[in-house]
Amino acid sequence: MLILSSPSGAGKTTIARRLLAAEDNLQMSVSVTTRPMRPGEVDGRDYEFTDLERFGEMVEADDFLEWAEVFDNRYGTPRAKIREGLAMGRDFLFDVDWQGAQQLSQRAGSDVVSVFLLPPSIADLEARLRSRGTDSEEVIAGRMDRARAEISHWDAYDYVVVNDRADDCFDRVRTILHAERLRRERQTGLVDFARELMR
Amino acid sequence: MLILSSPSGAGKTTIARRLLAAEDNLQMSVSVTTRPMRPGEVDGRDYEFTDLERFGEMVEADDFLEWAEVFDNRYGTPRAKIREGLAMGRDFLFDVDWQGAQQLSQRAGSDVVSVFLLPPSIADLEARLRSRGTDSEEVIAGRMDRARAEISHWDAYDYVVVNDRADDCFDRVRTILHAERLRRERQTGLVDFARELMR
Fold it and tell me: Which of A121, A148, A160, A187 to mutate against chain B (most B CBs within 10 Å)?
């Protein structure tokens, strides 16, 4: 379970897409959300879109590994799908904020690796937010406040990568993924292999 | 502090040499030893060669970060040099057995990352030991016993890499080194950088 967090506008979405394209065994954890679908989004691919009532039922049923409310919208990670995938040896990428990262780490422990992307400067972050061109000044100001709040939790993550150049940033996050797969406790089959060597 | 351990004959020396050649900021921790110098070895580069009496004095003075006795010879890691190097931001590579790895982990905690190399098979290991051509059957038999004993401690390491092909093995160990450098707690300057972003 690889968590990729960043303040909005730090390039997380691009890095996530490139990782998913480059890594056969990695898939996005698709969150359930109550927020409206945006142009170009696909239900079941980008999010599972649902309403507040159904979301509340899932919270009641403890169906989420983590969930959070952001800008009056709710987002949650469905527990069952992750469990099934992990059991089949698949890796999952999570696009969550620091609270989601914290919840996932608490609930899934050593299965979780968390990476925080930082922008090279606050001016760069603002420029990226503006270049989207879809949001009002008010929304951008809110995002900048929220970005600063997210950045203040940088020390809750296992790894920190500064996204100065997208290629370098991608390489670094991929390096982290590849290294973490080599951790002893993540390599199933080592017990048998070592036993075979010692016979 | 990167520990690279393996049973004798699993290719550790080759991987260590390539890492040192490829990584500017990585240097070998030179051990102090009481064993005789071998042809081609250089005092102060391969080891600091000393006698039993002087080694004993250094143990008494607590000059070693770890030390061990192997085949009636003693090997120790001089504490002062490592401390100075780390303070200057340098990384050190350690060629120690599982006991050395354990001692270093206990004494240096989260500064230490340990990697264990395994041979692809026990037949491969024996072939590599024989191909050196410098040791008697008795010495080889002793090494095989010792190799099995070393392998039995595979689960004391952070990472395990099977050395099936030297190029792949080198890439994997290098990946581990690069990823570990991206760990939050190893990146000095992040505190100031994050503070700057939040202003």
Answer: A160
Q: Which residues of A touch B118 (CB under 8 A)?
A: 193-194, 197
CATH class of A2-183: alpha beta
Predicted TM-score (pTM) of this structure: 0.87
The conformational region for residue A62 under phi > 0 = left, psi -120 to 50 = alpha, else beta, is left
For residue A157, give the DSSP letter. Answer: S
> Could you tell me the CA-to-CA distances from B196 to A10, A57, A186, B186, B199 in Å, in that order?
15, 42, 37, 19, 5
Domain extents in chain A: 2-183
Domain B2-198 annotated CATH 3.40.50.2300: no
How far apart are the C-alpha atoms of B188 and A92, rounded to whole Å? 29
- Alpha-carbon distances of B16 from A49, A174, B59, B166, rounded to whole Å: 51, 23, 27, 11
What pLDDT digit, counting tens, does each position of B7-46 carry?
988 888 899 999 999 999 999 999 999 999 999 999 998 8
Instruction: Tell me the pLDDT tens digit for each residue of A158-171.
Output: 999 999 999 999 99
Say if residue B4's pLDDT is above 90: yes
- Does the beta carbon of A110 lie under 8 angstroms from any beta carbon of chain B? no
What's the pLDDT tens digit per position in B120-140?
Answer: 998 988 888 888 777 788 888
Distance CA A114, CA A95 (A): 10
